[in-house]
Amino acid sequence: MAADGPRSSRPDDAAKCQATRAIAAQVDWPCEVHQLFREHNLGCKRAVSGAIDWFFAQEQAGIVLEDDCVPDPTFFDFCDEMLDRYRDDERVGLICGANFQFGRKHGDASYYFSRYAHVWGWAAWRRTWQRYSKDIPDWPSFRRQGGLKRVFGSEHAQQRFWRHQLDAVHAGKIDTWDYQLNYALWRQGMLSIVPQHNLIRNIGFGAEATHTTGAGPLADMAVTPIEFPLRHPASVERCVAADNHVGEQLFSLTIAAQAIGLLRSVLKRLKVKAS
Prior knowledge:
Elements: E1 2-3, H1 13-24, E2 36-37, H2 43-58, E3 61-64, E4 69-71, H3 74-85, E5 92-96, E6 111-114, E7 122-125, H4 126-129, H5 139-144, H6 147-152, H7 156-170, H8 178-188, E8 191-195, E9 200-202, H9 240-250, H10 255-274
């Protein structure tokens, strides 16, 4: 288990960190517990990616659960079977627990393949994480060479979304780690496994959250146990319909929205100069 340190700007953080760590340390089943508790706050990008670096330095494969993510118990068996089945298949880079289709089912198999890495509960191999970089130094080259067009084709709103986010990550304007994981998979042409039903409930939406401060359709989603034995897809091919839906709902940036964002940025800068 790993945890970031308290923020110096928040006097109540130290006590909250200590209380949280005490709860997490109450493991009541036979196992070895390894801890990486930071003394000082590193922020989302450095703390989470550093913890996963630490994890995969010790393990060839495993499951990653962030705070506030509550898995259905069948999530663990699902990950275990997928980690074994696709261990040596370089076409597959990640196993997701979250499903954002809101009841839509795609095919008769227990899961489908996606270009998106949903990180509310996931599993992977060391071989996947070795392709990851929190700072994405090769992003400008990938962008210039039309990398996003190769990934998204004519889906221009999704190209705009990811160009905007990855530009910000590369410039150090976003303190996050997960956009970079999607980028790592695209660079390698890898797909993610997504269960047909949601297996992860995120209870971390609220005023005290870092990112998920507002309620929305993703807040506290219901979970449905996955049934065994699993039904496997006939081939490792991306489900275009599923990706189109989640892309349109979560990862699209229209020209109008982009223009509004630029206008707000300009007005903010003018306000700062005027003051």
